[in-house]
Amino acid sequence: MLTDNAISDPLYKEIDSLMSAIGLRTVEAVSSVHQGARSMRVVVYKEEGEVDTDDLAAAYNLIYPRYSIIYADRDLQLEVSSPGLQRNFKDTMEFSVFSGRLVRVYSISDSSYITGVIEEADSSSVTLSDYIIEDRNEKGERITLAFSNIAKAKLEYRWEA
């Protein structure tokens, strides 16, 4: 199931405010301690165009100095990456981040995958346009799914035109 914790996470909020200054959105920000070292993983997204190495370098250079001071008592290992072509969603907030992108969700009530373009998302549901319910081969213009009805979701990429 998808969580809805990202918006209330202080680390996510802080990283997202840093990333917005350079035109990026934060998809995920996770920090953990393992064998005495602090590991941070940050996934960023650009609404206009694709995330490139310059964007990742800019994000790294903005995050690393700040958190190397905050976590001065431990070695810091920072990974900054793009979401990839077929990212598995972990949080409901990702629907609003990826607005306008093609997504594939598993609907519990339909017992089927539904593919469509994210039109809008709020705190409780997502609306997909130009959707296809795969098992029934049913197509439609708009469908609204409650997050409680979505078992899993991921970005969808059409390999053939």
Plain-language structure description:
By secondary structure, the protein is α+β, with helices and mostly antiparallel strands. The chain has two domains: 6-81, 2-Layer Sandwich (Alpha-Beta Plaits); 94-155, Roll (SH3 type barrels), CATH 2.30.30.100. Helix content is 20%, strand content 41%. The chain contains three helices and eight strands, in the order αββαβαβββββ. The strands form two sheets. Strands 7-6-5-4-8 form a five-stranded antiparallel sheet, with no helix packed on it.
Mean pLDDT figure: 93
What's the story with the biggest beta sheet?
5 strands, antiparallel
Shape: elongated
Q: Which strand order does the major sheet show?
A: 7-6-5-4-8
Distance from first to last alpha carbon: 31 Å
Rg, please? 17 Å
Instruction: Bin the strand percentage.
Output: 35-45%
The percent range for helix content is 10-25%
* Order of secondary-structure elements: HEEHEHEEEEE
Q: Give the domain tally.
A: 2
Total strand count, please? 8
- Helix- and strand-based class? alpha+beta
What is the second-level CATH architecture of the largest domain?
2-Layer Sandwich
Low-confidence stretches: none
Query: DSSP helix count?
Result: 3
Output the CATH topology of the largest domain: Alpha-Beta Plaits
The first-level CATH class name of the largest domain:
Alpha Beta
